[in-house]
Amino acid sequence: VSQSRYFRLKDDIKTKLQDWLKQPTNNFKFIEYISSNESLKGLLKTEEIVLSNGSDLFKASDIFSVVPEELIFLSPKQVNKEVLLSIKDKEVKIEFKIFEPIQFFKDSILDKTEALNTSLNNEVNLLLFWEFIFKNWDLFDNEKEKEILNSLRSIQILCKSESTEQLSKCVISKSYLSAEFNLSYEIESTVR
Known about the structure:
mainly alpha, two-stranded antiparallel ribbon, 11 helices
């Protein structure tokens, strides 16, 4: 591909092709074409081409191909499911952003606990979020990640009132877990 055609294509991606690329079938065909052409492959890293589940376009390096199910309610940038299936079916090689729990927490949750607590607006989301924390506890529970551990104190959990049988939400640092449910004092030491 000549340099002039390359730069014209870059311009077209930003202008003329925007709506066309937001159709999953078109998006995949374009990705497949670009990734099969050595001189155009770099466009996936420099241009917003890949369709997300939210119908926006992103650079391949800025969007996840896979996100843990527990975090879907936070709407992280993820490749459109139809596009991703086609990419996998045709074995198209693309380097997407790799999901790393610690980095995701730092980028999307740390210092954003107020917004997170707003997203934790129902029992399902609360349980999903804490399931994510539980599954990745070994990564978070170390001296290097103290800021993550400290931030957990300001994130909501489900609580059950003594007087009523209703579940409610409260910040973990303001809740009490009786010794009968915390025999090894693991949870209490984490909250402190």
